[in-house]
Amino acid sequence: GVFAVVVKDFVRNKQIVPLVEMTRELLEHIGFRTLCHTKAMLVSADGTRQYKSFFRRNAERKGSPPIDWESVLWMERL
Fold first, then answer.
1. Distance from C-alpha of 26 to C-alpha of 23, rounded to nearest angstrom
2. In the beta sheet, which residues pair with residue 71?
3. Which of 4, 5, 17, 71 has its Cβ near the most Cβ atoms within 10 Å?
4. What is the model's pTM?
5. Cβ distance 55 to 45 under 8 Å?
6. What are the two backbone dihedrals, phi and then psi, of residue 20, each rounded to the nearest 5 degrees?
7. Which residues pair with 17 in a beta bridge?
8. Per-residue pLDDT of the chain (78 residues; tens, 9 = 90+)
9. Which H or E element spans position 69?
10. Do 57 and 50 contact (CB within 8 A), yes or no?
């Protein structure tokens, strides 16, 4: 079967942790194949609208690196 998993990187100690890549590698290791990797933007093209959580926006105001998208991994079982 085919499934989609929505994953977003996160910040630890002011460094971005690549959770999307780690998840993809794990799923491929246990027998899945990546069909497609799609990014869903959380900020509009002109930057006027944001679809981020309050906590993410608050952390960015305090100096945390921005995370402007979440990823959709389309996987297939081999």
1. 5
2. 7, 39
3. 71
4. 0.86
5. no
6. -60, -50
7. 10
8. 899 999 999 999 989 999 999 999 999 999 999 999 999 999 998 988 999 999 999 999 999 999 999 999 999 998
9. strand 69-77
10. yes
